[in-house]
Structures are given as structure tokens and as C-alpha cells.
Amino acid sequence: MAVILAAGKGTRMKSELPKVALSIAGKPMIEHVLENLRSLNLSRIAVVVGYRKEEVINRIDLNRFPQVVFAEQIEQKGTAHALLAAKEAIGEAAGTLLVTSGDMPLIQPETFEQLFQSQENQDVAACVLSAIQQDPTGYGRLVRDNQGFLERIVEEKDADEETKKIKESNAGTYVFESPDIFSVLTRIDSENKQNEYYLPDAVKVYRTMGRKIGTLVLDDSDQTLGANTVDELASLETKFQKMQAQRQAVKSS
């Protein structure tokens, strides 16, 4: 099972379209995410829509992706609130749940597979995808305990200067156990500078429950790139084309 968070507007994109509906290599970003999930043969993929939801829904071919169902985040109150909106669409069946973002088209199929595997191998309540960034500005930072397990994720706007020095950043992609995660989400508060319910704060809740949180650190930090501006979207297109060319070269060799 998976949830794709796709309810945001993308205010700095200078477009009336939702960010996930903007194109990379001639396809909406969210379609690339769905393509990258295809090889996992997931039983259900819930896409959480919100801002101009029809623009997102109409860009997903349900003949090609029949496992997709939609959930609506009526008010945008943060990523934890968005995932909670998918509870009914996912259902009560027990299983491992992948959560990712609809505006991150560079995360490769094998990375998603490795994240599932990493959660199982580490025997942890959840597993977070991360990367070491030379310049992690704008990303949440991963704070570890003395055993190396994840202690908390601190959003940059809430980070002190010492935390901002951490290079390991949150890639916004997670594996949780369902339906347990949905009860965890109800314990997250909005006491932060954005006054939002942050999904990364699930880590703190799990830790108060005595549960361990693992990580999968990517070698290729480019996979974690998203786009918040028109210039970043152009850069993402360039990275995507380069990545596709490299994958094609490997297949041909």
C-alpha cells in the first residue's frame, strides 16, 4: 500500500496548476511518481488531493493505474493532516504503508523497494528515507540518538543554529505500519512556526512510545530533489533527463 501526498498548491511556481500537475519531460510530476511505484505491485495507492483537485485527478489514467484511489484534504493543515485524510481510502487492513510526495519524480523504483526492505531488516516501527546534502537549506534535519536510531526530525524553520549544521536531511518519504500510523497521527500537535501538523513529528510520537525508527540513507542525493520555484523546476527537468539517460545506458550495456 502507498499514499502519495498531492494536495499542495506550490505558491512560488507562478502557476494556477497544483505543483504535482506541472510537467517534467512532458508528463505531470505525479505520473512519474506512479510510474516509479509500478514495479512494486502495490495493492492500493491513495492519492491525497486538495488544491484544484480535479486538475490532479484528471491527469491520472486509471486504466494504467487501476490501484489508485483518491482522498481529499479539505483544509491544508500540514503533511500529517494530509496522511490522516487517507485513512478511509487505505482501510483497516494490516500492512506496510509507503508514504511519499507527488512532487518528487526522481526517487527510483529500487529506492522504494530498499526502503521497504530496510524497515523489515532493522525491525523498526518506521523507516525514513534521507540523504546527505552539501547544502541542506530548506530541508528538515535528522537528529539521531547515541545508538544511531532516529530521534526526531526538525524542520528548518524550527531548527536552532546547531541543528542547521546537520547535513542529513529528510527526503519526505517513509514506511510505516498500517493501521497503527493513523493513531500516531492523532497525537501530533501543531506547536511550530507553521502552525501545521508535521508528518515528521510522527518520529517523536513513536519515540515516546518506546519504538525505534530506522533510516535508509541514499547515496544519490539527487533523488530527493523537488521543486518549489520555476528555476528549480527547470533544474529538476535537467536532472530527470540525465538520470533517464544513465538508466538507459545501463540497460543497453
Fold and architecture overview:
The chain has a single domain (2-252), classed as Alpha-Beta Complex (Spore Coat Polysaccharide Biosynthesis Protein SpsA, Chain A), CATH 3.90.550. Helices cover 31% and strands 23% of the residues. It is built from nine helices and eleven strands. The protein has helices at residues 29-37, 53-57, 79-84, 87-90, 109-122, 161-164, 180-185, 202-208, 230-252, and strands at residues 2-6, 23-24, 27-28, 45-49, 68-72, 95-101, 126-132, 141-144, 150-154, 168-178, 213-218. It is globular and about 45 Å long. It starts with a strand and ends with a helix.
Summarize the helices and strands and which ones pair or pack.
Layout: E1 2-6, E2 23-24, E3 27-28, H1 29-37, E4 45-49, H2 53-57, E5 68-72, H3 79-84, H4 87-90, E6 95-101, H5 109-122, E7 126-132, E8 141-144, E9 150-154, H6 161-164, E10 168-178, H7 180-185, H8 202-208, E11 213-218, H9 230-252
Parallel strand pairs: 1-4, 1-6, 4-5, 7-11
Antiparallel strand pairs: 2-3, 6-10, 7-10, 8-9
- What is the fold-level CATH name, i.e. the topology? Spore Coat Polysaccharide Biosynthesis Protein SpsA, Chain A
Strand order of the largest sheet: 5-4-1-6-10-7-11
Strand content: 15-25%
CATH superfamily: Spore Coat Polysaccharide Biosynthesis Protein SpsA, Chain A
Q: How many β strands by DSSP?
A: 11
Unreliable spans are none
C-alpha end-to-end distance? 33 Å
Second-tier CATH architecture:
Alpha-Beta Complex
Keywords:
Spore Coat Polysaccharide Biosynthesis Protein SpsA, Chain A; 7-stranded mixed beta sheet; globular; alpha/beta
